[in-house]
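Worked problem 6 (solution included).
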Amino acid sequence: MDKKIVVFGATGNLGAHISTYLKGLGYDIIAVGHRKRDNGFFADYSIPYYSVDITNVDEFDLLPQKDIFAVVHFAGMLPAVMEGFNGSIYVQSIIQGTLNVLEYTRKVGADRILFPQTLFDINYLFGTKVPIPADSQRKVPNGDHWLYVIAKNAAVDIIEHYYDSYGIKRFIFRLSRIYLYHPNPFTFTDGIKVLVSDRYFIYRAMRGADIELWGDPNRLLETICIKDFLQIIEKAISAGVEGGIYNVGSGGSTLKERIEGIVDVFSPKDHPSRIIYRPEKRSSKQFVLDIRKTVNELGYEPKYSWHDYLVDFKKEMEQQRFAKIWGREEDYISPEEINRLVTDKD
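Solution. The predicted structure is:
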């Protein structure tokens, strides 16, 4: 299999997985990232790496200009990594960046483009266990994600224009959170750095500490393991359809299933964490995605459960496969800080 695929955002959480996974399938991968150096990571996989700022159209001349089959565009700013708020970065990296990537896609004659859409364009439909259809109306939410969603929606509209005008097949994935191991346990919420909630529970479970489960334990939240997500990417690369918007999910898991899984995988067997139910506390806002279109058009078949993901997470935590580009966990958080964050305050 010698089809060339250019992956933009190749050093990111998803881009690195996509690049190495598709390379393992035999595709000719070209990795493109914003950072100047990849520390030799992609060379380990015999993948060439190019440093390109997608907001600068002139830098695309550095890339191969022919025989490209597909472009995977996973570059652009995310709220989860933005400290404070700088809306111009969303406009430049997502809207301008996507326009530049599309122009490159058109000029090199690529057959298709793959792009991630945000889940927050449909958050007005959250709150029930009714699966949300892939072709639901896209809307702009309130809160710190408003401009991010506007930029993503605009990028989708531009991609649709290039499909209508130039016939570039488009596979747009509405992403729930893709569950994978990353050494950085922090995210940004409303521009403020916080510990990822699942990581908090994992750290407590590793120490055999009690874990509180707030609200309704049967609240359903969409779940998809990185391995199932990569299956969707693989299907989209080879699909014989024109594309569209596809929901990325696997049917969801309940809060109870999540916490029980974390305790089973990470707690010491001789001293497992106790689950303390706190039904009087605020419940999580539940949602689940309708994946029938992804199944019917792409041939996607979910294979990995929440428990499977946790086992994989633990393995990745031990192996640190992406340390050359992401660093190690101790680069982001010390054992002392973990103890301070998870120690009971009562």
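Discussion: Residues 87-107 form the longest helix (21 residues).
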